[in-house]
C-alpha cells in the first residue's frame, strides 16, 4: 500500500491525501490496449491509444452529427406535418 508523507492532510484514498492520490494514485499500467507496459492515461488505455480513439470518436461524431442533422431536418419536416394531421385525426375521433 502506498503512503504519502502528508500525515497531517486528510486521508483521501489508498493511504494518500487528495493531492497525492491524484498525482500518484492512478499510476497503473494500461490494460485496455496492447501497451500494458505504459502508464494508463484514461479508460485503461495508454495516452497514445486513448488519444487515437478519442480523435476517431470525435471525427465520427462530427460526421454523425452532420449526417443526422441533414436527415433530421428532412424527416422533421415530413413527420411534423404527419404528426399534426395524425393528432388532428385523433382529436376529432375522440371528440366524436
Ligand atoms: Zn500527500
Ligand atoms: Zn496503447
Q: How would you characterize the overall build of this protein?
A:
- The chain has helices at about 20-25, 45-95; strands at about 10-15, 15, 40, 45.
- The protein is mainly alpha-helical.
- The protein has a domain at about 30-90.
- The strands form two sheets. Strands 1-2 form a two-stranded antiparallel sheet.
- The longest helix has about 50 residues, at about 45-95.
- The protein starts with 10 loop residues before the first strand and ends with a helix.
- The model has no long low-confidence stretch (mean pLDDT about 80).
What's the short story on this structure?
With 96 residues, this protein is mainly α. It has helices at residues 18-25, 47-95, and strands at 11-13, 16-17, 40-42, 45-46.
